[in-house]
Amino acid sequence: MIRLLLVEDDNNLSYIVQTGLQDIIGGYEVITACNGKEGLEAWKEYHPDIIISDIDMPVMNGFEMVRLIRETDGDTPILFASALTSPKDVRKGYDIGVNNYVKKPFIPDELDAHLHAILKMKEGARSRNESSMCKFGNYTLDAGHATLRNTATGQSTTLTAREAQILQLLAGNKGEVVRREVILSRCWEKTDDYFASRSLDVFINKLRKLFENDPQIEIKTVRGVGLMLTDS
Questions:
Q1: For 154-206, how does the pLDDT look when each residue is reduced to its tens digit (9 = 90+)?
Q2: CA 77/CA 230 separation, integer angstroms
Q3: What's phi and psi for 76, nearest 5 deg?
């Protein structure tokens, strides 16, 4: 059974989603919280397998809650369920480490499909642990634990699961162009979704910032083809 943390300030919607997911065969153990502050406390106490959160909530909103979680936890999948799906909001969510969005209103079966897609991607990453360690330049990437270590300085950086997955794909094919559609199919399980394509650009910009002070490492865009990591 999947342990799920649902953070939603609308009590009626929270009840509908909770009961709907619990009724699904093979279902969910659903823990609920009504704002980001309570969600943060529940995450610390229950260590859920996955988190679904609204964005616009009292006391603490979803953005702030995710930001605080991602300071120490780059692994737990987080999905925003919200009516706030403007490009600006989507970009902000991916910037702070959310894994995906689902737009309200939705039905439990639709949400269940999104959740299993995210968990399948996470399990797929786990099943590839034998190749989760990548070395390039002065860096060692542990994709299984979503950490990047600079061996020259000893500094470690916690990544989101998707950042680690993209970087692993690029570093594992160092010096070669990885086509955009390959990255999208591996990391989003889709190749023609507008939000997935835009969010890939957001993630690449974030990864580039990790190496902006290291002239040896470069993530190049090969226009019309894909991306390539070099450590010359």
A1: 888 999 888 998 999 999 889 999 998 888 888 876 656 777 888 899 999 99
A2: 29
A3: -65, 125
Alpha helices in 71-212 (DSSP H): 87-96, 108-127, 161-172, 180-187, 194-210
Token pair recorded at residue 84 = 């706030």
Cis-peptide, bond into residue 87, ω within 30° of zero = no
Rounded Cα–Cα distance for residues 226 and 64 (Å): 33
Q: Which two tokens stand for residue 215?
A: 């002239």
The two three-digit tokens of residue 120, written as one number: 């399948």
Which structure tokens are listed for 221? 């865009």
- For residue 60, how far is the Cα from the chain centroid? 20
Q: What φ, ψ does residue 52 adopt, rounded to 5°?
A: -115, 130
Q: What is the C-alpha separation between 216 and 151, in angstroms, rounded?
A: 14
| Nearest in space to 210 (alpha carbons), one of 162, 165, 161, 167 | 167
Helices 194-210 and 180-187, axial angle in degrees (round to 10) = 100
Q: Are 99 and 78 in contact (CB under 8 A)?
A: yes
Query: β-pairing, 28-33 with 2-7?
Result: parallel
Provide the phi-psi class of 59: left if phi over 0, else alpha when psi is between -120 and 50, else beta: left
pTM: 0.56
